[in-house]
Write a structure and sequence with these properties.
Elements: E1 4-9, H1 17-26, H2 31-41, E2 46-54, E3 57-66, E4 76-83, H3 92-104, E5 110-113, H4 118-126, E6 130-131, E7 139-142
Parallel strand pairs: 4-5
Antiparallel strand pairs: 1-2, 2-3, 3-4, 5-7, 6-7
Length: 152
């Protein structure tokens, strides 16, 4: 039986993060290295970071921050989502993205992402993000607003 564990990261990146970072570098992706630098510089910039472990091994990570481009209302951005190449197509990225969207729900109405390639764009579109032109981000998702309870 395969055991998948999704957990929120708080004060430190997982001890086995360097292996995930090395995998990203081997496939030409620098965003795990940027995650390390950002985390060391300003942990508070992250509203949430979720990691995914499969049978005890770190296989994926993703984060959400405030959208860095100016916006008229608060908007959050999905960032630094990565799944180890040996563990792709197992719904790990979707699980991480959904956890991050749940984190944003009720706090902002829009979440953005910058898809770095066509494969990433297809992924974001399959989980409900829409392609956007003319913005510093490539895709966005609109979250349902929370309605006040009756009588409030």
């Amino acid at each position: 039986m395969t055991i998948i564990s999704l957990e929120r990261t708080a004060d430190t990146l997982p001890a086995d993060f360097p292996e995930l970072e090395a995998d990203a570098k081997a496939y030409g992706h620098a965003h795990m290295t940027r995650l390390v630098a950002e985390f060391a510089h300003d942990r508070a910039m992250f509203h949430a970071i979720f990691t995914c472990h499969l049978d005890g091994r770190l296989v994926g990570i993703g984060a959400i921050t405030t959208e860095p481009a100016p916006t008229p209302v608060p908007v959050w951005r999905m960032r630094r989502l990565y799944v180890h190449h040996n563990y792709r197509r197992r719904k790990i990225a979707k699980a991480i993205a959904n956890a991050l969207l749940q984190e944003a729900a009720g706090k902002v109405s829009t979440v953005t992402v910058h898809a770095g390639n066509d494969g990433a764009a297809r992924f974001w579109e399959t989980i409900g993000f829409s392609r956007i032109d003319g913005q510093p981000w490539s895709h966005e998702a609109h979250l349902p607003s929370l309605e006040p309870a009756v009588g409030q």
